[in-house]
Specification:
Elements: H1 5-18, H2 23-30, H3 34-42, H4 49-59, H5 63-67, H6 75-86, H7 91-110
Helix pairs in contact: 1-3, 2-3
Amino acid sequence: MTLNNVAIGKRIQTVRKKRGLSQFTLAGIVDRSPGYISYIETGFKSMSLETFVALANALQVSSDELLVDCLENTVKASNHSFASILADCSEYERRVLEDIVIASKASLRANRGYVRTRR
């Protein structure tokens, strides 16, 4: 199996932006050049394991979260992702989101066979 550098790079970019970090700032934290960070985010270059770990630590994410598109068993990564989404929610918000997910799941399963064709 080969790693999908483009998918990993996109995840790194998404998390970096979510954290409000520029490529320049992230590059300083992990002691790499901003150009190199750009190459990683576009998938143009692969990175060493040392750089990958430094990026995960700097972005405060698990390696699973960055590799989720490359893993066969993504349940743990998805659980971590959902947990981080819910981390700052109030009890009320968690209950509403749970109701929404349950209703959405039921609707998806009920309409699984429905395929809309365009004319």
